[in-house]
# Entry
Amino acid sequence: MDHVVTVASSLLSDGEIRPVSRAPVRERWSWALYDFSNTIFSMNVATLYFAVWLVSDLGATELQYATANGVASLMVVVAIPVLGAISDARRRRKSWVVGFTIASCLACALIGVFGVTTLPRIGAEVIGGTERAAAWHVSLWALLPVLACYVIANFAYQAAQPFYNAMLPELVPVEERGRLSGLGAAVGYVGSIVGIMLVAPFFTGSLPLIGQLPGGVVHFLRSIVPFTATAGRVATFVPTALLFLVFSLPLFFFCRDRNPAPKAAPIRWKAAFGDVADTLRESKKHPGALRFIVSSLVYQDAIGTIVTFMTLYAVKALGFAAGSEVALFVVLTVPAIFGSYVAGLMVDRIGAKRTLQITLWIWVALLVMMASVPTQAAFWVVGFALGLNFGAVNAAERPMMLALIPDAEAGRYFSLMLLSARVAAVAGPFVWSLTVYGLEPPFGTVFAYRAAVLTVAVMFLISIWILRGVPDQRETTRRPTGAA
# Structure
């Protein structure tokens, strides 16, 4: 029967003891399905289409794209402590998830609306469009509406995550949280693939790895979804927004806040930012914790940078035909499911630190290979290997952090890691963009992009060097709270 079964109890922040329950099946699955929906956005907008549309189709610079990314990340950095304070005080998470999701969907759709109505019809696969002259570049003034919408969509997407994650403890007892979290992660990978497959027909009229769809099917799809008749990358944003919204609806309708605080509960605004500084000061009690967070800052920045610009690299440096880079990301995502599982087994067998070190060295080797391979066929092999290694960092990172700190302080340190990751997300794209900007005029596009890949490899090397000084401790040997 689909009902709530009380299995334990917990002490809430207001000191009141309430039961921790297993939520109904439909509520747990609705929560996990949100991972499916938000990966559709992150894959199609943040990874596949927006950057290539901006730089390759419209002739904008990588620096303009990196600036938009940086603004969104800085907004998240400022907002995370405030959002965390609201979440902790009010324990009303669902309304924030719903609000930020709707805002992200609207802004994502408006990228497509402004792209179709205010910008020239230029780019790969655009119906009735023209080829962009090599010397022509879209003006920054013309780009401002779509850049603003991208910043809002990206910010709102990220801002929903702390509230979404905070819903997990209210859905299942502690001994089942890992299982439900893992289900969400697995469903998220599936969402990436499904999102690619469902949106690709609006771009090229075909399905990745399958081929061209019948003309009648493509015409029907583009006739029922507004602002997609032009085809091309500009036609992917409205359907992505619709899919993001549709697959989020189960959470909207079936999930609820199970233990909300009274509406008048005070919010510790000053402490929201003070807690970050306190955590940094108190990290000295736990040797290696702060050093590991710094290492994480560097390698997460590197991963985010290569994911952000890999599509551009495939198109600009290797000459991938329009649409084929979409198939590349399908190939990259599928092995990530299996690679994550294998990495988890490695953590249990040889420890989190050794697993993470091996994973980071593999990243270095594969990026050097990526910068060296001259053919598209070889790049497919490297992409598949990257996929196998892609999820290994997350598999090793969480147990690595938990081995360095007491359980009671895990929330503070994971929040600090999230904050550091958003800070880092500004640096990597700027290093990449400045490398391309400086090297492309004298040495050409291919050389500039290959050099940019090597800058990311250097970032991984730096993170490995920092990680060396972190104690190699198993989670079972953690010290009690406050131990020196």
